[in-house]
Amino acid sequence: MRREDILAGIRAFLPLAVGVVPFALIAGITAVDAGIPPYQAVGMSVILFAGASQLAAIELLGGDAPLAVVVLTAVVINLRFTMYSASIAPYFRGVSGLRRWLGAYILTDQAYALSVAEFRDKSPEERGRMGFYFGAAIGLWIIWQFGTIIGALLGATVPSGLSLEFAVPLTFLALLFPAIEGRPTAAAAVVAAGIAVLAAEVPFNLGLLVAAFVGIGAGVVLEHREGTFPTTEGELGGQGSDEQGAVDDADAKPSGGGSE
C-alpha cells in the first residue's frame, strides 16, 4: 500500500469526522446509562464496531431483553454490509485473505461510500484501492474508539441539551447527496427513504433492510430502462476486459509439460 493512497483516504474521511465523533460519544454515554461498565462499553465498541446495531444492542441490554433478541437485532441491522461487501469486493481482487478479513472488520457506511466513489473516478494506477480504503476505514475506527471511550468516561455528565444525536443523520446525508448522480440514484434514494419512514415501526429495524432492497430495485429498473446499468468492466475501468484478455492469451498458448 502506498503512503499517498493511505493519506488520501484519511483526508477524504476527515470532513465526516464531525458527525462520527458525536455518534461515538452517544454510543459510550448510552452504554453507561444502560448500566454497562465503561470497560465493557469500550470492549463492546472494539469487538462489534457496528454503530447503529451497537446502539440498538445497548438499548436492548439495558431493557433486559433476551440475548437471542439482542443478537438477532444486531445481525438484522448489519445485513446491509452484505450488500456493501458484494459491491466493493471486485475492487479488491488479488488481495490476500488476511487483508480481506481486516477490511471486512473495518467496513462502515462511510468507508464504503468514500471508497466506491473514489474507485469509480480514478483508475487503479491513479489510486491504490486497498491503501485508500484502509486510510478512510482505519481513520474512522480510531476516531470511533476514542469517541466511545470519552463518552463512556463522561457518562451522564454530558448535558442532554447538546442533542448530539442530531449529528448522526447529518453524517449519512453528507454521504448520500454526492452519490446522487442521475434519475436512477435519485429514484433509489427517494423510494428507500419513503419506505424507511413508512416501515419505521417494523420490529428489529427490518423496515430499513426492506427499504434498502426496494430502493436498489427501483434504481436498477430505471438503469435498465435507460440502458445505463453498469457492467463489471465499466465499474472497474476495464479491469474485467484486461483479465479476459489475459485469459484469452493464456488459452492461445500451447500447453507445456510443466505444472504450476
Report the portion of residues in β strands: under 5%
State mean pLDDT (0 to 100 scale): 78
Q: Give the uncertain stretches in residue-range form.
A: 232-260
Instruction: Decide which structural class fits the backbone.
Output: mainly alpha
Which percent range fits the helix content?
Answer: over 70%
Number of helices: 14
Number of domains: 2
What separation lies between the terminal Cα atoms? Answer: 27 Å
Total strands: the figure is 0
Main sheet? none
Cα-based radius of gyration, to the nearest Å:
21 Å
What is the overall silhouette?
globular
Order of helices and strands: HHHHHHHHHHHHHH
How would you describe the overall organization of this protein?
It is a single chain. With 260 residues, this protein is mostly helical. The protein folds into two domains: 3-167, no CATH class; 180-249, no CATH class. The chain has 14 helices and no strands. The protein has helices at 3-13, 17-33, 38-48, 52-62, 67-77, 80-88, 97-105, 109-121, 129-154, 167-179, 183-198, 206-226, 232-235, 239-252. The longest helix is centred in the middle third of the chain and has 26 residues, at 129-154. The two termini are 27 Å apart. The model is unreliable at 232-260 (pLDDT under 50).
